[in-house]
Amino acid sequence: MPRRLRPTAEIHPDAILVGDPGRAMALAQVLTEQPKMANHARGLWGYSGTTAAGRGLTVQATGIGGPSAALVLSDLAELGVERAVRVGTCAAIDPKFRPGDLVWVRAARPWSADRPGAGTPARPDKALSERLRAELGEEAQAGRVASVDFLHPSPDPAHSIPAGDVADMQTAALFTAGERLGIALAAVLIVEPLSDEALLERASLASRAAARSLTL
Q1: Residues of the chain with pLDDT under 50
Q2: pLDDT of residue 4
Q3: Roughly how many angstroms between the first and final C-alpha of the chain, as a whole number?
Q4: Which residues pair with residue 66 across a beta bridge?
Q5: Is the peptide bond before 193 cis (omega within 30 degrees of 0)?
Q6: CB-count burial class (<10 Å; 0-12, 13-18, 19+) for 200
Q7: Which candidate, 191, 174, 94, places its Cα nearest to that of 140?
Q8: pLDDT of residue 5
Q9: E-assigned strands of 63-148?
């Protein structure tokens, strides 16, 4: 029995992962017909439903930060998830990335405030990631992620700027955990800040592409 998730509906082999529980609910309504809540334990809302193409899909919240995301992914692996795409948010480091841009993640490196740049880059599953890139098309730019253990930009002037195009808090952990668990992982991130309405619009576009990329 998983230690964190307590499923009350079927968990499908294909999953969309988002940090925010409210966004998980909103995207489940966008991606599936009559989604059922599959988990509410620990506030990690998850939903399962059937896409318009007739495929089962789970949309699961992972919480904040790498440790939470990796633990949720471990439970999902135990429940039968085989492929997943993270649809998350990030902050721009490179000024060429602007709010609302979609970032197709080609690598993610853990970045610690105490030991900057100490982590080894983690990479997505090649086949799934290439399918995601094809589905996103010109909507997304390729980028390198610094997965930080503090919100970027840090208020502490002693913290160095992470090396990467954008920063988030969990993609590197998910890639690393996915490889260990045998789950194919890919990721697309949305550059913030955005209004709630604009963020949902971009997340809906990204998640539709993600759902299509999960189709084998």
Answers
A1: none
A2: 84
A3: 28
A4: none
A5: yes
A6: middle
A7: 191
A8: 87
A9: 83-92, 102-111, 140-148
How much is the pTM?
0.94
Residue 195 CB: number of other CB atoms within 10 A?
11
CA dist 136 and 13 (Å) reads: 22
86, two tokens: 């993270």
**Structural tokens at position 15:** 């999953």
For 87-106, the pLDDT digits (tens) are: 999 999 999 999 999 999 99
What is the dihedral sign for C-alpha 143, 210, 3, 19? positive
Widest CA span in the chain: 52
Closest by CA to 68, choosing from 4, 145, 2, is: 4
- Would you mind telling me the total number of residues written for the chain in this entry? 216
